[in-house]
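Protein in question quoted in full.
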Amino acid sequence: MAVERREPSVITVGGKGSSLSSASVFAVANGIASVRIDSSALDKLSSHQPPSVKFRFYIPNYLTPEEARASLLLLLNKLLLSATSGAVIRPALPVLISDTLNLGLGSGFGPLEDAIDVTDEELVVLEKSSATLDGICAILDHQSLDLSTIADAVAALSCEAARADVSAFNLMDSGDGFTAKDEIGVASDLKILLNGSKLVGQLESDAVSEIPKVHGSLREIARLVHSRTRVELNSAVVKGGKGAFRSRGSGKVLATSLSPLAAALRYLGESSLCRAKLNVDLMANDDLRCSMMQMFDRGCSSMDSLRNLFILISQAAFEEDYIKFLHEINSLAGMVRIIVSWEAIIAFVSLEWSELIEKLQANVPLKVDMNGENVKAEKKNERRKKVLGKGTTVLMQFIKDNLQSRINEVGDHSALLEKKAQVLLSFLDPKDTAFDSLLKKVKEIVESNETRRLPKLPKGTRDFAKEQMAIRERAFSIIVEVFKRHGAMALDTPAFELRETLMGKYGEDSKLIYDLADQGGELCSLRYDLTVPFARYVAMNGITSFKRYQIAKVYRRDNPSKGRYREFYQCDFDIAGQYEAMGPDFEVIKILTELLDELNIGDYEVKLNHRKLLDGMLDICGVPPEKFRTICSSIDKLDKQSFDQIKKEMVDEKGLTVETADKIGTLVKERGAPLGLLSKLKQEGSKFLENKGSLLALKELEILFKALEKSKCIDKVIFDLSLARGLDYYTGVIFEAVFKGAMQVGSIAAGGRYDNLIGMFGTKQVPAVGVSLGIERVFTIMEQLQKDRNQATRATETEVLVGVLGDDLSLAAELVSELWNARVKAEYMVSKRVMKHIDRARESKIPWLIIVGEREMNEGIVKLKDIEAGKEDDVSRDRLVEELQRRLNGMSP
């Protein structure tokens, strides 16, 4: 059956800011659109240079008319682009090519079939433009993107026709960067199409379970080909001293990009063939199965045909015959499209076979089985039980409506099947008028299906409701007050930094950094913490002394768990500059204990160690210096894993000997009261005293512990040799606060000294030490404590509700404005029912209610009600603000 072609459109080339798309190339190549050269482009061309050489267009005879026309369109575009880049091009040549393209599909190439006169510069563009390669590539780009979408929809129909087990579609993005997003995308789209289906879930088949991988691969590669094609379509031929710079290089670039596409198309075709054969074999009606098998074998390519064509593609690539290479891939794409079309035909007929048989055999006597039951009634009951997915139901109806508009007559069984197959084949041809409608319908189903309309949060994030915001604001106010008490100044930095700023600062945790998509400019990443941006700021501005605080969100691609998020607040306090020995270190630990005490979250401990002591310990145990950081990362996991697990990692993955690992195991078990353990480590004969780094660390820790003892907060500190802190930038004291309550939330704060970090961004080293409070986990603790204590949280700070009985908004505006002007926190409500005002005050926990009705207005008073006590008094209208302020301040009359 002939394809129903669209009404032709017009594609304009050469206009200011215009670019050629693959869809435009496909439309012109197939006679769906005509070509028009923008008048401004023609005006820029020059007629002064006379032609000097003869040129004959070479179009390989194996190219299809579609491919040849695409080549001419690309040649036209290259001529116009090259003219804007300085090449001298006459108007006659672009006009000749445009006129030839507009002759139509069956008209050949007219004057271009003979040799034509061209100038030297035109010859450079004609010979070196790689227009044939780019033209075929554009067709492939357009078809592969469309095929990817249609193949997913057809596969969904096949799954229902086969009653297939679709559990393989239950894929989730773990968010750790190790999942194939296109596989997950395909699985998600199929689940949307099949949502609500009662047909799937029975038959296990490799041809079904492999759909996410096979289709996801095509989706991924088609997107990459699209990016490459956009560049090639709109690049000019640059004329150099010896002609053009671009020649065979384009073929190699396209071969590199399109070889994976050939493989993806082949495997898609093989997978589609398997599902088509599966559904033919599963057809219950013998006559239908026989007819479909004959039509399928006659009209569809075989597995051998696919593989033989793939061999031709590989051979052309090996021989560097790039035009042949692209032509064969285009042939493969066409073959796969027909295979997918046959998969659609078989799935459609299989799902509708009982209805089809009923129409064709309306006058055939009913068959009766051995039990005397009506077979036709049985089929009817079976059909009634069938429930397709919500997406596939819409798709099936769309196909049926289009079939009905093209097939009006009813013939014998085989003839009608043949007609339906031919209509569906043309229907799935990209040149057909209905194809765009089908493509649009599939995208509409996938993008607007109700499962997608249900809003949800990204994993690792949270919303803060009004009660939670009240807790958060209270916590922030306490934190800021403590920071300011110690003389800190506020700082704010961007949410994202240059990627190079963040790289190399976080050790093995660098893999958790969120990279932003390259928008054609700088490579950026979301900030991982607030310390590195602070160091960058200090270095960039030449600051040598700064005591700062910052409360802001940071981002980590971590595995979410209770109290662990991918977007969360950090509250940082840092001291940068030269000070007395261990002074800043003492102050940040003191600040940490003040914060946790005043937030009133319960019992906690601050584990503390020294990086130089840790390095000395590793040296004493025989760890090579180049492995210090990676072994520290292993030790840092001891709060989550047993030492046996850590030992296995250090030996099997990081190359330590068992003896060295055991020595580390003995030392990292040391923990206790700071001054007591310090005294033990300084005993005569201690190997720590023989190591230069650890000896310096012990001296610094002695100064620190004595200061903490005098400040009466040392009882909260535990000296713990297993504390490692995995971040690479720490150089001295390191510490970590851990909540000791029933709720397991892990570390709630951490910090340490980083003397070399600021110097990494500038020429001057500025020593610094800081603490970071993981406020999200503190919020979790505070919320749970509030629930445990049965404490209700007030979402607002409203002190009084002005209740006007009636509908007089102006009266409410007058009263509430007086209160606002007096800095009283007030709200208003207008309602005729007294209980509505009282209920509103109770629900919002507003302590005072002012009631004003007609009687109160006439008497010049208001009623002032204490909601909690249930008492109310009449107050003179003139003394309302004064009396309310007195009661809010707790003053007696």
Notes: The chain has five domains: 9-129, 138-360, 465-602+751-793, 603-740, 800-890.
